[in-house]
């Protein structure tokens, strides 16, 4: 049953990045949109994420619950040594959600709308930035579980070149996903061209920040090149991601948008697979050279078995209704 729990954990992280990341990316797109086009961007965004944006945080909740119940050592290590970036990310999620609701559904339209707008776009940038920083922190090997002072314990574990580079890379990927998803929501050709341009910009930014990630990994001794290029799965994933990128750009230049969402999701999935496969089952690399493994940090067998059955049975209830929710709101707008 441990494999079922680990599979659900990986799936929850992936889906939160693909779906929740695209939600964050919508705010990033708005942040980098000119003032004259922001109203159109908001309208398209409301159509795309307005009815279902809250459902995407379900995947984050599932991932946190799995870590808390099945992998208490991993959960406690992250909660202690990464509590600052975790707190900033959670505050960003709350601020973004609150601003989204008030600026769209507030009965009184006044100067506070501009405040809500700023909170929404900046929290949409900050949240995936710190999500990426947390991801980089568990990989970089800078978390010190035997620190000598506060800074060593709670700052340098996440405030380092590699983690920040991963954070910026995550922001670019979220913006790219959002631009691709929003293309399919456009009714007018002019809006579609505008989002295609944003998708190209974010894709170039993601490639550039990806290069920065590899440079930062080399500078700080993170064996990212070995993880990605010295095993057949990582090499195949990178190759497929590169091929999908070429095909995606070809379709963008031709103005063909029907399969772009699938290609973008596939590309990001392959990137995550390339980075994580060789590192698996290790979840957190520590400064002392050791690592916390999913297999070694797993909880009692009965707890894991109960959680596994709960996830399997719960997915039978949740996934069909979640799919119906997306279908119903899309159908309503047609």
TrEMBL record:
UniProt name for this protein: Cytochrome d ubiquinol oxidase subunit II
Keywords: Cell membrane, Membrane, Transmembrane, Transmembrane helix
Its membrane topology: Multi-pass membrane protein
Classification of source organism: Bacteria, Pseudomonadati, Bacteroidota, Sphingobacteriia, Sphingobacteriales
Transmembrane segments: 6-32, 53-74, 80-99, 119-139, 159-181, 201-218, 233-252, 259-280, 307-327
Protein family: Belongs to the cytochrome ubiquinol oxidase subunit 2 family.
Organism: Pedobacter albus
Subcellular location: Cell membrane
Signal peptide: none
Keyword Mitochondrion part of the UniProt annotation: no
InterPro entries, per the entry: Cyt-d_oxidase_su2
Pfam families associated with the record: Cyt_bd_oxida_II (PF02322)
């Amino acid at each position: 049953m441990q494999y079922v729990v680990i599979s659900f954990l990986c799936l929850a992280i992936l889906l939160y990045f693909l779906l929740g990341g695209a939600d964050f990316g919508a705010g990033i797109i708005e942040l980098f949109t000119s003032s004259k086009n922001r109203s159109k961007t908001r309208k398209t965004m409301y159509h795309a994420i307005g009815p279902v944006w809250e459902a995407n945080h379900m995947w984050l909740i599932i991932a946190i619950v799995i870590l808390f119940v099945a992998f208490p050592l991993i959960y406690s290590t992250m909660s202690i040594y990464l509590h600052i970036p975790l707190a900033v990310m959670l505050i960003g999620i709350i601020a973004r959600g609150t601003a989204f609701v008030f600026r769209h559904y507030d009965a009184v339209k006044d100067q506070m709308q501009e405040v809500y707008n700023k909170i929404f776009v900046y929290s949409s940038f900050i949240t995936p930035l710190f999500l990426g920083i947390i991801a980089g922190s568990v990989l970089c090997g800078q978390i010190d579980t035997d620190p000598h002072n506060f800074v060593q314990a709670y700052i340098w574990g996440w405030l380092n070149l590699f983690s920040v580079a991963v954070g910026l890379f995550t922001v670019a990927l979220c913006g790219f996903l959002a631009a691709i998803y929003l293309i399919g929501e456009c009714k007018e050709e002019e809006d579609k061209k505008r989002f295609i341009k944003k998708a190209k910009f974010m894709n170039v930014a993601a490639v550039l920040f990806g290069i920065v990630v590899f440079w930062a990994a080399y500078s700080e001794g993170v064996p990212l090149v070995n993880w990605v290029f010295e095993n057949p799965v990582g090499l195949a994933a990178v190759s497929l991601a590169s091929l999908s990128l070429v095909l995606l750009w070809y379709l963008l230049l031709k103005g063909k948008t029907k399969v772009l969402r699938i290609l973008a999701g596939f590309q990001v999935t392959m990137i995550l697979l390339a980075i994580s496969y060789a590192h698996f089952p290790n979840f957190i690399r520590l400064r002392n050279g050791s690592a916390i493994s999913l297999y070694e940090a797993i909880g009692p067998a009965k707890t894991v078995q109960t959680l596994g059955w709960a996830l399997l049975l719960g997915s039978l209830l949740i996934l069909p209704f979640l799919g119906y929710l997306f279908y119903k709101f899309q159908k309503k707008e047609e």
